[in-house]
Specification:
Structural class of chain A: mainly alpha
Radius of gyration of chain B: 19 Å
Structural class of chain B: mainly alpha
Helix content of chain B: over 70%
Helix content of chain A: over 70%
Shape of chain A: globular
Shape of chain B: globular
Largest sheet of chain A: none
Distance between the termini of chain A: 23 Å
Distance between the termini of chain B: 54 Å
Strand content of chain A: under 5%
Radius of gyration of chain A: 21 Å
Number of helices of chain A: 14
Largest sheet of chain B: none
Order of helices and strands of chain A: HHHHHHHHHHHHHH
Strand content of chain B: under 5%
Largest interface: A-B, 52 and 50 residues
Number of strands of chain B: 0
Number of strands of chain A: 0
Oligomer: heterodimer
């Protein structure tokens, strides 16, 4: 349906402004409610996220991770697959990457940094893709809803990696305490000029560009979107839905796994907890706020990353718990959902009832 | 013998919040809605229960407050899915984020306001505590609070409701085929709203059990994934009352085992996988003849 001009103005201008104003209002109210000063908190928030070189570097580093997660989520959601397993897929990717650094191959990769970094990133993507394909296969051959399976697989992945990290003789009977075991410096992303900023961003932004071109300018992207809009119709038009679904599971898992490997290479070791925990769920808000458009995801990921890192410095300096950002994220998702449902209702011409 | 009694008592105690949450999720899933936000509902119940229990110095009022808070929080879900017809899964995720944010912010503010006190709820006495010296029965059953007993009593009650009453049949019809149920004169939205509220109260009490009965204090995100385990229990129990209850108690025993193993042993991490791995296996094993309501996850 062709959007009317006023509908387009609403979508492009009024809605984002409303969302930002609403977010700021809730933010201020929440801070007032716990008896702190909103203006001071907001100043600390800004200086911690974008107002300093260290803050800016951290923001970009976190946005890189969020961007890759959200790209995979957007592809899945566009294809009508509610894959909420980025958290677990990233963890498996990270574990696969770290597994390569052990033993003799690890020594080889540490000596040849470029080969090593490429191999680690590929291993990360493969690990994530395989973990995601597990859910895909369960859906394809056993009819298991991907919502439940990806959610459960998240916890399985997190616990399995915790087991690997805390058991002392994993892989070739090596006595390695993975919790303490740092990656060799050759395989680590050094932060630029003492900030967290690392070269991973040069991988993530082209990925967003590629996803944009794929989704909107290729036949494959057209098929994917058709499948998401109406699977039955798409199949009747000759879209190989089963195969395409598996491919989407694989690609979105690979993106999450890549992010997991990047995160580990930036932080330097595989701890018991993921370096950016809960980002897999936060990325769902990123993808939804960006209306599942890859290029908008770049911008929204930056905003969310700034919110995440800014809230930590706000907690330290102004005594406002960083948890407030969780409330804001959740309310943002609800607002987007309500708007989308409203749009759908108007298009259906059905009454609200 | 005393070891068995202790194990049984602890498993029941650990299983109680899972049982409440599992039955709560069962009720809402039978009505055709899937709520992955029960973790958040439990968290709201846990904090409100703790807060009321601390303010009034009464664990009973704490449990009631937990039920009310769970109901109130579920109203968000009901409004989003029934009125606005928003996607159920994503709504549930948003509810988890909001609950984690709200409860942790509130607790941080509360403990900042009372820096010197330890905030705690008075101990809740067992229902038959005067008999606690009876061998075997004493340690296994007599220390359990009234909440554990009511969770156990709920199992036959909910089973009877679904299998033997007309209302229960109507609710199942709403979950299987809402359009047909509507045509048969059932108010689908009202039935689903009631299911939401009942589920909210159950999950809220389950969360409150953790703070008012089990630990008597609060910690950020103290439900630590129990809502998701309850979700797994419903899947493993194939959307049946008995199956879900058995799965919840089984998971309770599993977690007792985990706590009994010294935490330095890495095998602890593998035990924690069990609920999810079992649920996934149950999903894959002849899923197509499985029992999930036909309209699960579809808005009406």
């Amino acid at each position: 349906m062709e959007a009317k001009p006023d509908a387009r103005v609403w979508q492009l201008l009024v809605w984002p402004v409303l969302l930002i104003l609403g977010t700021l209002a809730v933010f201020a109210l929440a801070i007032l409610a716990i008896g702190q000063k909103p203006v001071q908190a907001f100043t600390e928030f800004l200086s911690g996220s974008v107002g300093s070189r260290a803050g800016l570097g951290g923001t970009v580093a976190r946005a890189t991770i969020l961007l890759l997660y959200a790209l995979g989520i957007a592809l899945s959601f566009r294809a009508g697959l509610i894959n909420i397993g980025a958290e677990g897929q990233a963890r498996m990717g990270a574990a696969a990457a770290v597994a390569l650094t052990l033993g003799a191959p690890g020594a080889f990769f540490a000596a040849h940094a470029w080969v090593g970094i490429t191999a680690l990133l590929i291993a990360g993507a493969m690990g994530g893709a395989l973990w995601s394909l597990l859910a895909g296969a369960m859906k394809r051959w056993r009819g298991v809803s991907e919502v439940v399976s990806t959610l459960m697989l998240n916890f399985v992945a997190l616990q399995m990696v915790r087991y690997f990290v805390s058991s002392h003789s994993w892989l070739q009977g090596r006595e390695t305490d993975l919790q303490q075991n740092e990656l060799s410096t050759a395989l680590k992303f050094a932060g630029w000029h003492g900030t967290d900023f690392h070269s991973g961003v040069f991988l993530a932004v082209p990925a967003a560009l590629a996803a944009h071109i794929f989704l909107f300018y290729t036949a494959g992207g057209m098929r994917l979107r058709a499948m998401g809009l109406n699977r039955g119709t798409a199949r009747a038009c000759g879209v190989p839905c089963d195969r395409l679904s598996l491919q989407v599971f694989g690609v979105s898992g690979a993106l999450a796994g890549l992010a997991g490997a990047l995160g580990i290479m930036a932080v330097g070791k595989l701890g018991t907890e993921p370096p950016y925990s809960d980002f897999g769920y936060m990325a769902v808000s990123v993808a939804l706020v960006a209306e599942l458009k890859p290029l908008m995801i770049v911008a929204v990921a930056l905003v969310f990353a700034a919110m995440d890192i800014g809230s930590t410095s706000m907690e330290a300096a102004a005594g406002v718990p960083h948890w407030i950002v969780y409330i804001l994220n959740g309310l943002m998702i609800l607002a987007i959902l309500a708007r989308d449902a409203g749009v759908r209702r108007r298009q259906d011409g059905r009454s609200i009832g | 013998m005393s070891f068995v009694a202790n194990a049984l008592g602890a498993s029941l105690r650990i299983g109680t919040p899972l049982l409440f949450a599992g039955l709560g999720e069962l009720v809402i899933e039978r009505a055709g809605m899937i709520n992955i936000g029960i973790e958040g509902v439990m968290l709201c119940g846990a904090f409100s229960g703790f807060y009321a229990g601390w303010v009034f110095q009464s664990p009973v009022l704490g449990a009631i407050a937990g039920a009310i808070a769970g109901c109130a929080f579920m109203l968000i879900y009901a409004a989003m899915t029934l009125k606005i017809r928003a996607e159920q899964i994503v709504t549930g995720m948003a509810m988890n984020l909001i609950a984690a944010g709200l409860t942790s912010t509130a607790y941080d503010a509360l403990s900042a306001a009372h820096p010197t006190e330890t905030l705690s709820v008075p101990r809740w006495e067992g229902l038959f505590e005067s008999w606690k010296d009876v061998p075997f029965i004493g340690p296994a059953f007599c220390m359990q609070t009234v909440l554990t007993w009511s969770a156990l009593a709920l199992i036959p009650l909910i089973w009877c409701y679904f299998e033997m009453t007309e209302r229960g049949l109507e609710l199942r019809a709403v979950g299987e085929n809402p359009a047909a149920a509507q045509a048969a004169g059932i108010n689908v939205r009202l039935a689903r709203l009631k299911a939401c509220l009942a589920s909210g109260a159950l999950c809220g009490v389950g969360g409150a059990f953790l703070t008012v009965s089990q630990t008597s204090s609060y910690a950020s995100n103290c439900t630590s994934g129990r809502g998701f385990i309850a979700l797994a229990a419903v899947v493993l129990g194939r959307h049946g009352t008995r199956g879900t209850a058995i799965a919840c108690l089984l998971f309770g025993a599993t977690f007792y085992l985990r706590d009994a193993i010294p935490s330095s042993n890495a095998i602890v991490q593998l035990v924690e996988i069990l609920p999810y791995a079992l649920a996934l296996a149950a999903l894959c094993w002849k899923f197509k003849s499985g029992n999930a309501p036909a309209a699960l996850g579809k808005n009406f």
